[in-house]
Amino acid sequence: MALPRPAPARRVFRPARRVSWGTWIFVILVLLIAVGALGAFLTFMLPQRVAQLAQSEAGELQLARKGTGDVSTNVSHLWADISAKGSMSLSNAQLTQDLALANSAQKSADEALGHVQLAQSYIAQADGLPFQLHAAAFIATDRPALDHLDKALLASEKLIHAAILQLTLAQQVTADAQKIPTTLDPALNAHAWADAARASSALAEDLKPQQVSAAFADALLDPLWANWIDAMLAIATSAQQYSLAAAANQTQSAQQSAKTLAAARQQFAASFAAAQNGAAAWQAKTIQPLLDTVTRETTAGS
């Protein structure tokens, strides 16, 4: 027997609830407040923020320009001293003075670069502000100037770093060069073979790390000066062999070592003269292009 069909569910249609006037008034007030806030932001807050960033950026740009100009001047003076006849030709007093100038220039370059980077950050903030119809006027003029200053400082720091490496090495090498006439030669002339062997051994040990430092590309050191250091090391090595052979009464070996020592001394003098004479060519080839970059970019950023 079939079961009776269930009665269909009754559908009740309810009219949509009307939004009260209070709700409409609240919505309108919220919209008015939002529009007013946006208008206030565009009219007052946005221009004020742009003006603040422009003022801060202008101050940093001024400091960056002054700092870059000072660094450029110091770098030019520094390399005028070094490039005349090479860093190894400078007196100990001049080496100390130039090294102090290089360290001071390094500090000034770091400070100037900090001002450049801070000014660039202000420009980035101003450029990233929302709801701007056009970029702030100072961005178009100051951003290229900061790029030029940045390039000038990077070239300056490369030259300063090279100067510090060269001058530090020159202090060590020239001090070792003085040991030949003041310590090594008197011992050899007096036939104090033990003293001569010790002096030559100590000199050779000092020169080996300096020989490595002379090959550092960052030092921008003329390879002719590396040849001079090699010749000095050859003197120390030959003198040590000569002293040991003479102390052991090995006449033939001592005579051969004496000839090698004499040849090393000749090479030492010749390589020093060659390095001095080649200083101008090395400066024109390696240093002057960087100095030109510093001058050109500093002028463009001013």
> What is the total tally of β strands?
0
Secondary structural class: mainly alpha
Number of helices: 7
Q: What is the architecture at the second tier of CATH? A: Up-down Bundle
Report the biggest beta sheet as strand number plus sense, adding barrel if it closes: none
- Which percent bin holds the helix content? over 70%
Low-confidence stretches: none
Counting structural domains, the number is 1
| Residue share in β-strands | under 5%
- Roughly how many Å apart are the termini? 106 Å
Mean residue pLDDT = 88
Q: Which word captures the global form? A: elongated
Radius of gyration, in angstroms, nearest whole number? 38 Å
In CATH, what is the class? Mainly Alpha
Q: Which H/E pattern describes the elements? A: HHHHHHH
What is the fold-level CATH name, i.e. the topology?
Methane Monooxygenase Hydroxylase, Chain G, domain 1
Give a description of the structure.
The protein is mostly helical and 302 residues long. The protein has seven helices and no strands. The protein has one domain: Methane Monooxygenase Hydroxylase, Chain G, domain 1. Helices cover 83% and strands 0% of the residues.
